[in-house]
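Suppose you are handed only these lines of text.
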Amino acid sequence: MQLTTEKFIRDFKDTLHEEQMIKVPDASPAELFETLAHTIRKYITPLWLERRRKLVESQQKIAYYFSIEFLPGRMLETNLLNLGILDTVKEGFAELGVDFDAVRNAEHDMALGNGGLGRLAAAFMDSLATTGYPGFGNGIRYQYGLFKQKIVNGYQVELPDDWFGSLGNVWETRKDHDAVFVNLYGNVYLRANEEGRITPIYENAQVLRAVPYDVPQIGFGNDNVNNLRLWDVEIPEKFEHFYPTLESRRKVTDITAVLYPDDSNSEGKELRLIQEYFMTSAGLQTIIKSYLKQGLPLEKIHEKVSVHINDTHPAVAPAEFMRLLIDEYGLEWNEAWQATVKTMSYTNHTILSEALEKWDAGLFKYVLPRVYQIILEIDNRYVAELANRGIAPEMIENTRIVKDNQVHMAHLAIIGGHSINGVAKLHTELLKEDTLRDFYAIYPEKFNNKTNGIIQRRWLQISDEPLSAEIDKLIGNHWRTDIHELRKLLDYQNDQQVLNDFYRVKQEAKARLAAYIKESTGVEVSTEAIFDVQVKRLHAYKRQLLNLMHIIKLYWDLKDNPDKDVVPRVFIFGAKAAPGYHFAKSVIKLINEVANLVNHDESLQGKLKVVFLENYRVSLAELIIPAADVSEQISLASKEASGTSNMKFMMTGAITLATLDGANIEIKDEVGDDNIVIFGMDKDEVYSHYQRHDYYSRGVYESNPVIRRVVDTFINGTIPNASQEGSEIYEALITHNDEYFLLEDFASYVAAQEKIDQLYRDKGKWAKMSLVNIAHSGKFTSDDTITQYAQEIWNLKK
Ligand SMILES: *Cc1c(COP(=O)(O)O)cnc(C)c1O
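From them, the structure of the protein bound to pyridoxal-5'-phosphate can be written out as follows.
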């Protein structure tokens, strides 16, 4: 959009005056933020309406992305950048004497997600709007986002994330007229009506009102505005008398109160099942209603609508869609089923079996009696059809939806849809060969890969403005609209001046982070040190503990030989642990106690520092990632489906230190062996251990004195205030045979870290590697990922 600085200043002052009745110098950053957001909303609204009008008029096919998590972080700068008015607003603020950074920091992160999965969903919203494909999000308007993490005495403490605060969500619009009803519980009978049609009779159902709040998703430089629809729950007016007490009302509002703070386990909780069904049913109901307004026949809905199931949480969608088509709109089973399969598609995000959702059949039937009947019918027909095709009984049993008294949600998503994709090449291969092998034999045509991606606008243009400016100087600014142009940087890989400039920009980002570290933890770190960063959810498979073991080894090296010639290091961690994940919390405690130990040890001469930054989230990631020299991507090969922080780090010039896991493999293929540091077992070696059952961690521990010394450090009192946690770690590594092969990969990790130390000594060489990484990072734009979804799965047109 077009906007002059003068007009912006006028609009901003008018809004401030109207809404706050104060003048600029008197306003707090929060008031200024709210005013700015409201000013921008006035710019967005006409674009939003126009987009809707055009979509209705053109009757284009629309994809709906169903996800129980969206993790956009802050929206202000993204919205300004995408509208094309970020610089105008910054100039306007400069004229008004307002500190833009203070206003930006007044926005609370929108953290309706745990980690990578929710972040991907948010990235896709931006990329859909930017590429111009009609794609809308569908999720839950949680009252509390992912918990706020405090570190107290080295322990994680969880506080509620009251993200609405006093401002509410400044970006949303409540859409009362699109509210729908969702039924739970009760009994269902099937009766024949006068025409002999079997119809369900509901008795004693609990009826909830689902109210949507729409959040605009603005495309970059195209004035295109899509919709992220988040559902809230309310008590329907005519049932209010059933809820006379505050407590009974709270039971209802609890449905959208909290995000489940766990991104790896499916918690078999009734409330979670209700959340999943609630957003899925509400979303599908409005989709069908808006489709029918076009006057087209329902059995052809797949020609105008795609429904995407992001992980298994919305995987009840095929069954609920069948229920709506048959019970509410009178379609026959077969035509409803064909439309359903053609409408639905599913992304798998993990091969960890504990994360593949299964529901107890009794609970499912109790909460969703009619949907359960439909699932049984789908399951029966599936079994009959496969038997008919001559599929082996064992294979049918492995893949059916209801078995051993459990409802397998991934199976429902695969059977009830036409596409299942993994999120990186290796991950998709593993799905085909292993996790979903039988499904792949039955439906090979449904399987495909869509490697995850990231929003370069947030992770480069916004979060690393100085680097972006440096890139502009070299190759012009066209890369800002076509990220693949970053490849032109390769022309400068041997230009000493350019390499010096890149090095300087990185040092400046490190200085900004160093200031934050000092302010938030009191620890002083030198920007001459290598900033070695691991930020992501805390999980055993991601192996933060392996990183810590290497730190302990360095500690002993320096204690033995204080004059040892090493490049100083600052190890930086950021990670939330699921509140019920005991092991992960012990690792956090140990990282913090090792930090206490080394940061206060004068004999180390500042060569080793360890920092744990609390409350890792998108806005903190934007500060940390541009300042990284080393990106730690050290999961056990085969366990990290894709990873996306690996891509963010690469884009701002960190060198990846990685196992051959997830998208690390694709990063290596892009930059070449010389511009990444790889270590550890590959997936075949890991699987061969599984097959041969030949891993024995105690053997490694007993025969390798270096490992033995590191592991013993957890239990011999070296690390103060953590003897309990230390012995738990020891038990996991030695008594429980080290499930994630840390001891096996340790030697090769240490060697890789020594290589990093050597490489960093040659600043020119390092800067060149950094530049090559940036130059190749365009490969991982989510704009391209979403284009592949749109063309290959959803069959959309721009
Ligand atoms: C990108 C991102 C993640 C995902 O990190 P991985 O290392 O890929 O697991 C998690 N949390 C936040 C806040 C992120 O920005």
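What can we learn from it? The chain has 31 helices and 25 strands. The CA atoms of residues 280 and 553 lie 50 Å apart.
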